[in-house]
Amino acid sequence: MSSVPGGPAGAPVLEVDDLAVTFARRGEQATRAVDGVSFAVGASETVGLVGESGCGKSVTSLAIMGLLPRRGVTVSGSVRLEGQELIGASDSRLRTLRGAHMAMVFQDPLSSLNPTVQIGTQVTEVLLEHRDMSKSEAATEAADLLDRVGIPDPSRRLKEYPHQLSGGMRQRALIAMALACSPRLLIADEPTTALDVTIQAQILELLRELVVDTGTALVMITHDLGVVAGLCDRVHVMYSGKIIETADRHELFARPRQPYTGGLLASVPRLDAGRGTPLTPIRGSARDAIPWAEGCAFAPRCDNAQDDCLTEVSGSVVPLEYDGPGRELRCRHPLEHPPAPSGATAAGAAR
Amino acid sequence: MSALGELKRERIDQLAARAGQVPEGEGGVSLTRSALRRLRRDPVAIIGAVIVVLFLFVAAFAPFLAPRDPLAQSLLSDIRPGFIPGSQEGFPLGVDNLGRDLLSRLIYGSRQSLMIGVISTVLGVIVGMALGVLAGAFGGRVDTLLMRFVDILLSIPSLLMAISISVLLGQNQYALMIAIAVTQVPIFARLLRGSMLAQRGSDYAVAAQALGIRKSRIVFGHVLPNSLSPVIVQATLSLATAIIEAAALSFLGLGDPDLARPEWGAMLANAQAFLSIRPELAIYPALCIIVVALGFTLLGESLREALDPKFRR
After folding, report:
1. Does B198 touch chain A (CB under 8 A)?
2. Is B226's CB within 8 Å of A115's CB?
3. A162 domain residue, yes or no
4. What percent of chain A has pLDDT over 70?
5. I need a labelling partner for B68 at 20 to 30 A (CA). Which of A54, A111, B82, B164 fits?
6. Is the per-residue pLDDT at A7 higher than 70?
7. What is the pLDDT of residues A193-204, one digit of tens each?
C-alpha cells in the first residue's frame, strides 16, 4: 500500500497517497475516476503514468494540481508537495504554488496558448505573477527562457502570436512557461501526442535535459510506451483508476507481470515484423472494465483470467502487492517469466 | 558515393544560411491586423465600408454639402393643396410640404440618424458587456441571476420596450437613445456571457490556471479578448437595427419633439399624408435608412468572417 520511496536524494518531491477522485452527477451513479492511487516522485526523477484513454491518468494529474472543478467532484486522499498537503488547501494557496512550485505541460500546444496574446506576454505573465520582477527584467528573462528551451531568435518570437509558431515550437514555449519559476514538480500530460515523431523526440530530449539540469521531479503521463522507454525511471501502469503494476523501466519492458502490461507491450507495432503480420491488440476496450469491488477490472479482457479473479467476497479488492525488489503488482495470475535471459522478448511472453 | 565537392558544399552552406534568415519587419501579426488584412480583400466588406464611410462623411460635412438651409422655406407660392413641386432648378429632389429642400434635409438628417444609432449601440454594448463579463467571470449564482433578468428583458418585444421606455422618459432624443440601448443590452449580455463561458473551459484558460495566474488576469487578459469578436460583429449589425428603430420611433412620434429638425424617421412619418401626391418624400428617406442599414450589415457580416479564428493563418 505504501508508496515506494523514489528518487536518489532524500525525501520525495511529490507524495501521492491513496488519492481518489469521484465525479457525481445529479440523478446518476457516481463515477470513480481515480481509485486509491499512491506513488512518489523524487528530485531529478521521472515517473511515468501509463494507461489507455479513460484510465484516470489525466484526472490524477489535474487532482494533484488542484485543477478539478469543485462542483460535483470529490477528491480524497493525500497529495504532498515537498511535505505540504495540497488536498483541501485554499484556492489562493494553490494558486501561489501553481506555476511557482509545480507546473504542468498539456497535450495540445496550440489550444494551450492564448491565440490573441503574444507569446512574450504569456511568458512574462508567469514571471510577473510569481517572481518579484519588473517588466523589463521579465522580458529579458522570457527571452532567456525561450533560448533555454531551444527556440531560435527568441526576442523575435516573443512578439509573435501562437499561430505563427510551429507545433514543436509552441510546445517548447509552453515548457518555457512551465519552467519559468523553476518548479520542483513538472507534470507533463501527454506532451508529445499532438506532435509529429521527429519533434516528439526533440521535446522528450529537452524535457530530459531540463529534469537532469534543474533537479525537477517529472511526472510523465502518456499512453505511448516509446516515451516511457526513452524517459521514465519508474513506471506505474494504471487501469480503470488504479495502479495495477509498478516497476523500473527496464524491469517492466523485460518482464511485464500484469497481463495488461504484457498486452500493452505486445500491441506496440514492430518494424521487424514481417509484412502482413497482424497487430496484436488487447481484446475489448477500456469500457469493458468491471468495478474493482467485484474483482479485477481487467478480467473481462484478460487471457489469464481465472475464477478467482472475481472476488467471492464482494468488496475485497485485488490488492497491490510486493512483487520483488522495486515492483508492485495487482494480479492473482501474473505472467510468468522464465529466469532465462530470453525474457527480453516481452511480446512473445505476453501471448 | 563520392564526397561532395568543396564548391558544392560551400554553396549548400550559403543557401542554408540564407534560408535561416527571416525577412525583417515580419514580427507578430495581431488579431486585429490580420482581420483588417482579410477585410481589405473581401469585396462585400469594401462595399459595406464604402457605404458606411460615405454616410459618415455626409453627416460630418453636412453644412458644406447641403445646397440649402434645411429649415428655410421656399417655393411657398407653388405649394397648393394637392400639389408639391418636384425636382427643379436649385432643388434637385424637390421640396417637402413646407417648402424645405428635401436633399438638404436628407443630408442633415444623416447626422441625427447616425448619432442616435451610434450612441445607443455604444450604450447598449457597454451595459450589455458589463453584465456579460460579470455573468461570464463569476458563473454560478451571479450568472443565473443576471441571465434571468436578461431573459425577462429579452421576452419583451424590442419595439414595445423602446416605446414604453421613451414614453416613460419623455419625448426627447436622449430618451430615444436610452430606449434603443435598453433593447440592445440583453443581446450583448447574453452573447458575451455565452462566449466567455465557452472560452473559460478552453485549454489555454486551464493552462493559465495551471501556471498560477490570478483569476482576474485570466478573465480580462485571456478569456475576454477571445470572447469579443462575436460582440464586435453584433455591434456592427446592431447599428443597423438601431438606426431602423430610431426611425421607427420617430415615425411613431416618440423622437425629437422639435419636428423641424431633419431626421429620416420623422421625415418618413411626415410624408405619410402626401404619399398620393409626392411619394418621393417618403421614398428618399426610406432609401437612406435602407442603404445605411445595408452598409452596416454587410460590414458586420464580413467582420464576422474576418474575425473567425478558423480562417486565421
Report:
1. no
2. yes
3. yes
4. 92
5. B82
6. no
7. 878 888 888 888
Chain B CB contacts of A161 under 8 Å are: 28-31
Q: Judge whether B312 is closer than 8 Å to chain A, CB to CB.
A: yes
CB atoms within 10 A of CB B297: 17
Q: Do B206 and A97 touch (CB under 8 A)?
A: no
Q: Determine what percent of chain B is predicted with pLDDT higher than 70.
A: 91
Interface test with A, best of B33, B38, B143, B204 (most A CBs within 10 A): B204
- Domain assignment of residue A118, yes or no: yes
Residue A101 in domain: no
pLDDT tier, B19 (very low <50, low <70, confident <90, very high otherwise): low
Buried b / exposed e along B210-245 (16+ C-beta atoms within 10 A): bbbbeeeebbebbbbebbbbbbbbbbbbbbbbbbbb
Q: Across the interface, which of A98, A153, A164 has its CB nearest the CB of B211?
A: A98
pLDDT digits (tens, 9 = 90+) for B228-277: 888 888 888 888 888 888 888 887 877 777 777 888 888 888 888 888 88
Mean pLDDT over residues A1-28, rounded?
Answer: 73
Higher pLDDT, B14 or B202: B202
Nearest-angstrom CA–CA distance, A257 and A244: 10
Whether B5 has its CB under 8 Å from any CB of chain A: the answer is no
Does position B140 have pLDDT exceeding 50, yes or no?
yes
Q: In this predicted model, what pLDDT tens digit does every residue of A215-260 receive, in sequence order?
A: 899 999 988 888 888 889 999 999 989 999 999 998 898 899 999 9
CA separation for the pair B245, B248 (Å, rounded): 5
Q: How confident is the model at residue A122 (pLDDT cuts 50, 70, 90)?
A: very high
To the question of domain B34-75+93-311 being in CATH 3.40.50.720, the answer is: no
Residues making up chain B, counted from first to last: 313
Residue A344 has pLDDT above 70, yes or no: no
Chains A, B: CB contacts under 8 A, how many? 89
Name which of B29, B202, B203, B211 to mutate to probe chain A: the one with the most chain A Cβ atoms within 10 A of its Cβ. Answer: B211
Which of A108, A117, A177 shows the shortest C-beta gap to B211? A177
DSSP symbol at A88: T
Domain of residue A125 covers: 110-180
pLDDT band, residue B190 (cuts 50/70/90): very high
What pLDDT is attached to residue B12?
Answer: 77
B232-236 long-range contacts, CB within 8 A, separation 24+: B232/B303, B232/B307, B233/B300, B233/B301, B233/B303, B233/B304, B233/B307, B234/B187, B234/B188, B234/B191, B234/B300, B235/B121, B235/B125, B235/B188, B235/B300, B236/B296, B236/B297, B236/B299, B236/B300, B236/B303
Place of cell 423602446: B162
Question: Are A215 and A44 within 8 A, CB to CB?
Answer: yes
Encode pLDDT of A279-314 as tens digits.
888 888 777 788 888 888 888 888 888 888 887 666
In A180-279 the beta strands, taken as DSSP E runs, fall at 185-189, 217-222, 234-239, 242-248
The total number of structural domains that make up chain A: 1
Give CA–CA dist B207/B74, Å, rounded. Answer: 71
Q: Could you tell me if residue A103 is inside a domain?
A: no
| Chain B residues closer than 8 Å to A156 by CB | 22, 27
Residues on chain A touching B313 (C-beta within 8 angstroms): 163
